[in-house]
Amino acid sequence: MPMPPAVLRFAVAAAGLMLTTATTLTTTLATPAAAVPPRSAVAGGAADAADPADWEAPLSARGRYIVDAHGDRFRLKGANWDGAQGSWSGSGSAADPANHHAGQDSHGIPLGLDRAPLAQLLADFRQSGINTIRLPFSNEMIHRTAAVPDSAVAANPRLRGRTPLEVYDAVVDALSRGGFAVVLNNHTNTSRWCCGIDGNERWNSGQSTGQWADDWVFMARRYASVPRVVGADLYNEVRRDVLDDPNWGLGDDHDWYGAAQAAADRILTEGDPRLLVVIEGINWTGVPVDGLPHGRPVLTPARTLSHTLVDARKLVYSAHFYGYTGPHHSGATGVGETHDARYQDLSRAELATTLDDEAFFVEESGRHYTAPVWVSEFGIGSGETNPTARAWFGNVTGYLAEHDADFAFWPLVGFAGHDDWALLRYDDTGHRTGILDPGDWRGAAWQHLMTAPGGKAGPVTPVPVWRMLSTDHGDAVASLRVRAAGDWDPGAYKAACPDGTRLLGLSHTGGRGLCTDTGTADLRAADARRTVVTDERQVPAGGDWASGYTKYQCPEGEFLIGYALRGERVSTALCVPARGALSGAGRTVWFDRSDNRPADAAGGDFAYGSSKGQCAATEYAAGIAFTTRVGSRPGPAALLCRTLP
User: Fold this and answer.
1) Res 31: pLDDT
2) If you average pLDDT over residues 554-577, what whole number do you get?
C-alpha cells in the first residue's frame, strides 16, 4: 500500500540496525478466534438484494488463467477495499484521526461506511467496472470484542453495536450478494498501517506461525457458506524486520515458502476446499543502503522452488508494483534512499522485461511453477503531477492490458480531501468523486485497462498440470487419499503427488520429484489400495531393467505416485492401482550422472543443480532404481518408464 514519499515504508528502515522495534497497539486481544460468535449470529445488515452475476464460484486455476465453475475465464479486475487491516500510523494517540494514514481513522473496518450506505458503495464499485474485491483484515480485528463507534457506521445504522469482525461479515455478505468475487487478505497482524518496520513484517511477527494458520482456518470456515468468497490471500508484503530477512525455502522460522505451503494446505483441508490460495512473493530483503545487498525477490524464487498444494488447481501467485519503488529501490526519499532505479524510471520496454523477470514468468505454460499471477496492488494518486510517475501509470496499465493480467488497484475507497490515491472518494455527506469523473487524469489509462480488447474470454481449454515435490525439510505428501490412509513409512521423509496426478520425474540428490496428469485423465483406480514397495519381489524373472542396482518396482497394473527417503537413500516406493489395464513397453531412464529429461523440458527444472530423470509425457513411472555401493550416492539413479495405455 502507498505511503507519502517523506515517510515511505523503508524510509524508517534506512540502515536496518539503527532501527527500533515498532510500537504496537495496546488493545487487549481478549477472545480467541474459536470463541468469536459464528457468522450466523451476526449476518445481515446489507441493504442490497442479490445481484445476478455472469460467473459462478468456485474459482480454480487452469494454467495461467483463473476459471469459474463452468471452466470459463474469470479475470480478476479488482480493487482493495481497505480499512479492516488498521489505519493507525503507529505513533501518537490512536484516538486522533491525525495519527492515522491520510487522516482516515478506519476504526478497524472497511472505509466509507460512515459516509455512504453499503448499497450505494456497491453500486459505485460496479460503475467503476471492477468484479473483485481484495478485502484486507488484521489478526487483531478477528479477536476484538468491543463494538465499533456508532460514528464509524453512521451511514449504515444497522451495523451499530457490532464488533469489527461482525461489520466485516456484513461487508462480505453484501459483496457476495452483489455479484463481486471476494478475496480475503490477511494484511497485518496488528491493526496499524502497513508496511515498514511496524511489527507486521512477517506472518509470525508477534505471533506464532501456528496461531497465524489457526486464524486462517477460522476465517476460511467462517465464510465457507458465502458463495462468492473465492480466495485466501495469505499475507501482505512479507519483508525484512530490524535484524532479519524472510526467505524462500530455508526451513527456519522466517521461511515464507514453508509457512505459506503449510497454511494453504490447512485452509484447503480444514477450512474451505473451494478457495483459491494466493501466495505473494517476498517484498523486500536486505538493508536499503548503497553497497549493501538489498532488493525485491518478488516471485523469482519460484523458478526453482514452487508450491504444490493438496489441490493442484488452487494456487495463484501475486506481486505488488508501485512506480516509486523499484527492483532494488525501497521507495524511500532521503534517509533510506539508494541510487537504484525506481520502476517509474524504467522505459516501457524495460518495465515490461522487469515485470516478466520478477513475476510474469510464472505464467509460462508447462512448468512446475505455472500459475496465474495477480498484481494485487498497484496504484497512483489523482493529484500526482510528476510526469515520470504519470508515464509509469500509463506503462504499467498498458502492460497489464496487453498481457491480459489479473489486477487490483490500491485503494478503492478513501475520504475526499484526504487520500487522493483512492479510486472513489467520499466526503462527509456521501458525495462521491474520483476515477468516474472527467477531471481524474487516471481515467483514460483505467478505462483502457478495463476494456482493452483481445483478452481471453469464455471457455479455457484444460492444460496439463505439472507440480514439484520437495522433501528439503520434511514430508511433501500432497495427496489427500494418501494422507487418509496413514503414514506408509514412519520416520522417513515422504513425498506423494496430488490426487489426479502421477510421479513422472525424480532427482538423484535433493529429494525432488515431479508430478503431472499429462497424457491421461486421473490414472488411479477408485479404491483405496496402495502398495508400499520395500524390496525387489515385484521385479519379474528376466526383467532386470537396472542391472547391479536395487530396484523398487510397482506390481503389475500399478504406477508410482510417491517415494520416501532416509537421508539420501530411497526407503520405499509408493504405488497405486490403475483404473484400467496398464501395459506397454518399458525403458530405463538413467540420471545418476547427468540430466535425462525429454527434449521439450516439460515441467521445467524441478531440481535445479541436481541430476534428474523424467519419463515422457506418454509414459508412467513404474519403478525406482538406486545403489547401495560404498562410495556411491544412494539417491534415485534410474526410473522404469512404461508407455501409457
Assistant:
1) 35
2) 97
